[in-house]
Specification:
Elements (H helix, E strand, L loop, with lengths): L3 E6 L8 H13 L5 E4 L5 E2 L3 H6 L7 E6 L4 H13 L5
Antiparallel strand pairs: 1-4, 2-3, 2-4
Helix pairs in contact: 1-3
């Protein structure tokens, strides 16, 4: 099966810090899919790992790339991209 990738811009005004990272990692875990997230040319990390997600140091406006595969890859990426582009700091 072919991997599907999507690049999205971080929407939270404080970037992917603890709360948005926790929401995102939990959603990635709950999706049941193996999802990775990477920033720039950095190595991809497990999207279901809160510490991995925080370690990216993604700030508001940064672009990150999500990658997964599987039958529901598009819908998983839709849901996760929505979380990343939403400002959870309002």
């Amino acid at each position: 099966m072919t991997a599907v990738s999507r690049t999205v811009r971080i929407g939270s005004s404080n970037g992917l810090h603890a709360r948005p990272a926790k929401l995102f990692a939990q959603a990635a875990k709950d999706s049941g899919a193996e999802v990775t997230i990477s920033k720039g040319s950095g190595a991809p990390v497990n999207a279901a790992s809160i510490l991995g997600v925080i370690s990216l140091g993604a700030e508001k406006g940064d672009y990150v790339t999500l990658t997964t595969d599987g039958a529901n890859a598009e819908s998983v990426l839709d849901a996760l991209a929505e979380l990343l582009t939403t400002d959870h700091d309002e």
